[in-house]
What does this fold into?
Amino acid sequence: MSTAKDDRKIAAIDKELRQLLTASLHQCWCSGKKREQVATEMSVHAGVTISKAMLDHWTTVAHADTRFPAFLLPSFCEATGDDRLRRWAMGVRLRGVVELREEQVSWLAKSLRDELLKPDRRHRGSKAKGK
It folds into this structure.
């Protein structure tokens, strides 16, 4: 039996999910990709038919009875080119691991880049023999 507190928690999670879906779709729209195209790409990737109307229902709080199916998460992220939803679904612990690894890779790449771009000190200021 769910309590009012449980219902509020579920509603907050559902709202956050809908906001993430909407933000990803808005980002696509800003780059020229409409919801119809996202739905088509999701359909191809998932092997099931996805319509613009379905995307609209999954993003609208007024359709609280229609929820985004978890099995479509990879298809949505591929179609939108946005991994925010996938990261959100990971949860805090796994997201922390991924973010730590990204920081490590970024630091390593910067260190390697700095090392490669250093002037070659062995030849600096050396004079040719006999001069």
